[in-house]
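SUBJECT: A protein chain and its fold
Encoding: whole-number codes for local backbone shapes
RECORD BEGINS BELOW THIS LINE
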Amino acid sequence: MGVALITPFHADGSIDEGALVRLVEYQISSGADFLCIMGTTAETPTLSSDEKRHLKELLVERVGGRVPLLMGCGGNCTAAVIADLQSTDLTGIDGVLSVCPMYNKPSQEGLYQHFKAIALASPVPVVLYNVPGRTGVNMTAETTLRLARDFDNIVAIKEASGNITQMDDIIKQKPDGFDVISGDDGITFPLITLGAVGVISVIGNALPREFSRMVRLALNGDYDSALRIHHKFAELFKLLFVDGNPAGVKAMLHAMGMIENQLRLPLVPTRLTTMEQISSILRELDIKY
């Protein structure tokens, strides 16, 4: 279970480094296997270049190699992504997560050429990220498999297409050494039963101990126990995204007393009704943190 790490903010909009450090320690001590930093859940599009550089340095130093770090590095200008890879100090970074280009909607050949260029330029392993609900384009199983076969340093895909058939096709036909990772908490359990190796999780920010337990149980074939945890969190999975991500998980972390409930525009906090539902479910679950 990897955690798609949030970026906590103070009421004035500045980064709350103290809360971030506490959150990282909480996740590592609670069973997170790796951290995915500066991805979508981190509100990276609203961070300045200086903030991103500082956060990367802070997290590399704080984690200190205790768990691997996967860093977001993607965009819809191939040349700009390559320039980032070549100019960023990747010391302490174990791999990059690169999202399909958003908004300009490339063809499947365009997607292939984009990730080919990234694979050839990256000094660290590359994890593809397919999330058509955000990017406006779906990378098909055929394109994913072509990339997986052609480039040794493309090592995995974070699949968040919601298309179980497509994900299953990738799992069935993938080459050795290439992994499929769930990009959606709510379908992590069924994907693992099909052969996925884990998840890059949003709910893991708040409930890493419980969610990592579900992942491990499923990976070890104890599907009955894993399914019970999956069902226990089913309502929370919906609430986390009803008002957008990371508004839901920030509301949950705020209800747990870990962060201020602050996002940067154009994102805003969850509606009061969603916040009340999240708080109510957390009380019912009676999870200690």
In short: The first helix runs from residue 17 to 29. The chain is about 45% helix and 10% strand. The chain has a mean pLDDT of 96.
